[in-house]
Specification:
Blueprint lengths: L1 E7 L7 H11 L4 E7 L6 H6 L4 E6 L13 E2 L1 H6 L4 E7 L2 E7 L2 H9 L9 E5 L3 H12 L3 E6 L7 E2 L5 H6 L2 E4 L25 E4 L8 H8 L3 E3 L2 H15 L2
Parallel strand pairs: 1-2, 1-3, 4-6, 7-8, 7-10, 8-9, 10-11, 11-12
Antiparallel strand pairs: 3-5, 5-6
Helix pairs in contact: 4-5, 4-8
């Protein structure tokens, strides 16, 4: 039986295990998908060594960048982004080769593109982790200029304290790549001037639990178009399967 799985920490929120095991059952695929909750990326070689039938892995927080040092090669897209969320495990005799890919960018761009209007030219990306790098890359391929927002000051980034009413009107696409507002902390949201938003703003939250985050609710209350990350998640999962079985 082929094996697939997810590495990250923590994994209580993960959707992948149920999604793939349901797919395997419905399509009579002789495979199983497991969660590998590891508190140190150095555990990855042990997971690979102890699962000779392993054919693919997904990677989630906090390892999308750290995992790169354990891979034999990267796709051009993953190399350009600097983050990996899919690993293809190739068995060649006694040798195992790991190749990294990024399906986040494909899932995200396909999900957000139908919502983009001509006046959406600049985007704020909340967070600076592996997912945010894929989002920035994806938005640039769609023709938008991007700027990261961080809790601490960095060159060429905004801090939350610098996000004024003028900024959210200029950067009218805002993508939340942080866990702020994720279940069970559903009453929280990124600190932004929501009262300055209107129908020209597009707020996209990578979080999908809850399906309407406080970030989305506050934006929508002022007329913004909002969307959560469930469709992106589904699209990147489909792409993961394509990568593992190409």
């Amino acid at each position: 039986m082929d094996r697939y799985g997810l590495i990250g920490y923590p994994l209580g929120h993960s959707f992948s295990k149920d999604f793939f095991n349901e797919k395997f059952e419905n399509e009579s695929i002789d495979a199983i998908y497991n969660n590998y909750e590891i508190d140190d990326i150095r555990c990855l070689p042990e997971i690979v060594a102890s699962n000779p039938k392993l054919r693919g892995l997904n990677v989630t927080i906090p390892y999308k960048e750290k995992v790169i040092g354990y891979l034999d090669s990267l796709s051009n897209e993953a190399k350009a982004i600097g983050a990996v969320n899919v690993i293809r495990v190739e068995h060649e005799g006694n040798n195992v080769r790991l190749k990294g890919y990024n399906s986040d960018v494909i899932g995200f761009t396909k999900s957000i593109e139908p919502l983009l209007e001509r006046y959406h030219k600049k985007a704020l990306i909340l967070g600076t982790g592996g997912a945010s790098k894929a989002i920035s890359y994806g938005l640039k391929t769609l023709g938008l200029e991007t700027k990261f927002v961080s809790r601490t000051a960095h060159k060429d980034m905004f801090t939350y304290g610098e996000i004024t009413a003028e900024v959210v009107k200029e950067y009218n696409v805002i993508v939340n790549c942080t866990p702020v507002g994720m279940y069970p902390n559903v009453e929280k949201c990124p600190e932004l001037p929501y009262e300055a938003m209107d129908s020209h703003n597009l707020l996209y939250d990578l979080i999908y639990n809850p399906d309407q985050t406080m970030f989305m609710q506050k934006g929508a209350a002022n007329g913004a178009v909002v969307k959560n990350g469930l469709e992106m998640l589904l699209l990147q999962a489909f792409e993961s399967w394509n990568i593992w079985n190409e």
